Amino acid sequence: MHRKAASKTEFNLQSEDLIFLEQTTAKFVFLTSADTDIQTIAAAVPKLPPSFDEIRVANLLNLQHQITIDSYAEQVMEFAQVIILRLLGGISYWSYGLEVVLEIVERNGTNLIVIPGDDALDLNLISHSTLPLAAVNKISRYFSQGGVPNFVNAFKFIADNCCSTSYNPLPPQEVPKFGLYDWGIEHRASGIGHGIINNAPNPRVAILFYRAHYLAGNTLVIDALCKALIERNIQPLPIYISSLREIDVQNELSEFLQNQDGENISFILNTTSFSLARLETERPSVELWEKLNVPVLQVILSSSSLEQWESSSQGLSPRDIAMNVALPEVDGRIISRAVSFKSVENTNSALQTDVVIYKPIASRIEFVAEDGRAHV
Questions:
Q1: Tens digit of pLDDT for each residue in 67-111?
Q2: What is the distance in angstroms between the CA of the first residue and the CA of the last residue of the chain?
Q3: C-alpha distances out from residue 227 to 166, 356, 366, Å
């Protein structure tokens, strides 16, 4: 066991080494397991009013043991006026931590906002919030829509409801669930809307990635994949999506990919996790892939650092294997390989935490591009 600052991020959940996050107290505490949340908050903080109270952010992946949760609760959460918990996977994902937070709320009268980490409506989860349901739903929409403007307005709205301020922010700004990424021009971390397809030779390949990465500017991997394909005379169509499991996203994606001036795509590089298949029937239902009828290569963005990858005897973590190998295989996707690993971009002194990005590995990007070319 040892203590370490939150700026010394660990990603390996299998480690027996306990991590104790060390931060000073602040009025707002934001808890999330999404690196894109942290990236976006880091970009949003400079756009908040200068008088806005300090915010602390902790990655739930660093709070997986009871003793580390207890320590963070005693040192940081105990003194917060507002705790925001954005939880992906429901209560069971962080059940002990939620129990600890609820005890703090009961003892101190802390304002608590508990919202899902995706667009799903989880009444059981949000019912633990202390704010009215309408306010919690609005806060959830700010964060689920994503992007810097929405995050800025979310914190202003929370302050108005919990700290008697009068910022009166704009309502949540809707962000398209589907769009083209302008990979060939300057990144727009908070940009919203459809991009421009660069002129490039055929054949064409779609690259699917999460909208949250687009909005947070976490796109180095997508840029690298596009560049590698262009070098092989393959035109990339990088497409951000909210989730492949949303029917309207499937329909829009299918319509777009089947109307490419009469030229069909040759294959798909998919970086999103989980399975598209619905397993309630005897035969898994994968209508989207069947309709497109092209090879789908699963490209893995590892949740570990490169150092952990190189020192591990099993490669991918159990979490990565479940989300990016086992479940995608149910869809019939072709498993490729991990092409990126988590890396600390910078330490954000205002949030007292690391801002982590996905850093591509050139040799692995090249391997996937070659693998894809074999399917042309």
A1: 999 999 999 999 999 999 999 878 988 999 999 999 999 999 999
A2: 51
A3: 47, 23, 10
Q: What residue segments make up the domains of the chain, in order of their start?
A: 2-162, 178-373
Taking the C-alpha atoms of residue 258 and residue 83, their distance in angstroms, rounded to an integer, is: 45
Q: Which of 287, 300, 365 is nearest to 326 (CA)?
A: 300
Is residue 332 left, alpha or beta, with left meaning phi > 0 and alpha meaning psi from -120 to 50? Answer: left
Looking at domain 178-373, its CATH class is alpha beta
Domain 2-162 architecture:
3-Layer(aba) Sandwich (3.40)
Q: In what order do the strands lie in the sheet with 204-210?
A: 178-180, 235-241, 204-210, 267-270, 296-305, 334-348, 353-360
Q: Which of 122-136, 193-207, 306-320 tops mean pLDDT?
A: 122-136
Output 326 or 3, whichever has higher pLDDT.
326
Dist CA 73 CA 84 (whole Å): 13
Query: Among candidates 55, 41, 60, which has minimal Cα distance to 159?
Result: 55
Give the span between the Cα atoms of 295 and 297, in whole angstroms.
6
Q: Tell me whether domains 2-162 and 178-373 share a fold.
A: yes
Token pair belonging to 195: 């991009």
Q: Assign 306 to helix, strand or coil.
A: helix
Residue 201 neighbours by CB distance under 10 Å: 10
Does residue 164 surpass a pLDDT of 80?
Answer: yes
**DSSP code per residue over 9-73:** ----TT-SS-EEEE----SEEEEES-HHHHHHHHHHGGGS-TTPPPEEEEEGGG--SHHHHHHHH
Give the predicted TM-score (pTM) of the model.
Answer: 0.85
Checking DSSP bridges between strand 28-32 and strand 2-5, what pairing results, if any? unpaired
Q: Can you tell me which residue has the tokens 């059981």?
A: 124
